[in-house]
Amino acid sequence: MGTWRSLPALPRLLILTQFAFNVGFYAVLPFLAEHLGGTVGLAGWLVGLVLGLRTFSQQGLFVVGGALVDRFGVRPIVLVGCALRIAGFAWLGYAQAVWAVVGAVLLIGFAAALFSPAVESEIARQAVCWEEAGGGPRANVLALFTVASQAGAFVGPLLGALLLAVDFRAACLTGAGVFVAVLAGHFRLLPQHIPGRARTRLGGGVRPMLRNRRFLAVCCAYGAYLLAYNQLYLALPEEVERAAGSQAPLAWLFALSSLLVVVAQLPVTRWAADRLDLRRSVAAGLLAISAGFAVVAAVRPAGWTGIGGLVPAAGFVVLLTLGQMLVAPAARAWVPDLAEDGRLGLYTGAMSSISGLIVLVGSAATGSLLDSALPPAVPWLVLAVVPVASLVLLPRPQRA
Predict the structure, then answer these.
(1) Which has the closest alpha carbon to 335: 133, 148, 128, 110?
(2) pLDDT in tens, 54-87
(3) Any idea where the domains of the chain sit in the sequence?
(4) End-to-end CA gap in the chain
(5) Would you tell me which CATH number, out of the four given (1.20.1290.10, 1.20.1250.20, 3.90.1150.10, 3.40.50.720), belongs to the domain 2-192+206-393?
């Protein structure tokens, strides 16, 4: 609360924005795989591909949104992104054909590719300004941002679970309604011009960025984290269905993850700031994520069901969440040290774009593994290896 009270109005608005974004988003997304596989009737590999396309159209196109933010500013990009998200959720609620589902999912993802780089790059810049003004470590502001994000992710699935008692369309239209409120609020409150944020031309920044090996290495590690996080929507629902006979416990596992972040993110960030540099924080988080997959892989051959069968899934969620609490604020705090002046939006977007490409390829591969006749532990073992393999790429940070 001390950090919150000391922040200016703009970073407070951005933190609350992230909360609202995730309430609308997570009222729909956790239940998308079941809707696609059950109501729409898509094969497992196609469900995985659609989820990967959603992530890639969001994360993969962040670089476009980030460049547009550097050129045109935060306000117009946020407003356009909200309008597109409203249209995408409404379309998804009525989509039945595969092409319509894919179109709606791509539109939903592209909307976030506009507004998320705007919000994330500006909160990172505001965090650096707050640190330079003597407010404290920048990671504290970014941890608050993560807490708001996960508080929204806590409320969203519970809201979506209630709305599914009506149908999936009700969840989609409610998500659209949340973004209508966000659009109206930001039209009124978001400043036209933000002091200290210079606008740059669109061209000229990509080539130096692609030669920045330190930045690209951090992107790959962040991509390994996002691929793991994406399994909350692909591998975890299948494991919950197998153990419990339905996906009813899924909303509670999402709530557990979000509640852990809300309660523990700030203490974990303070502990990491005192004892770990940025590289070690990211590395520790990736190791925790790998351990989460390993827990399920170790127990999966036993074929436990019922409450006992959900224990490994809960262990996976807890360890994945711990890894997220270590990786996400540290990686975001790292980017301003690696970006060129005036290109923070581009670099913020590019990190998500590169990691989104990793998720696209990895999600399709994971969907095929889950559909295969391989031993049930194999997909979880493969996923456990990915975060560990990415550790060797991490560079030494330029600052602690």
Answers:
(1) 128
(2) 777 777 788 888 888 888 888 889 999 999 999 9
(3) 2-192+206-393
(4) 24
(5) 1.20.1250.20
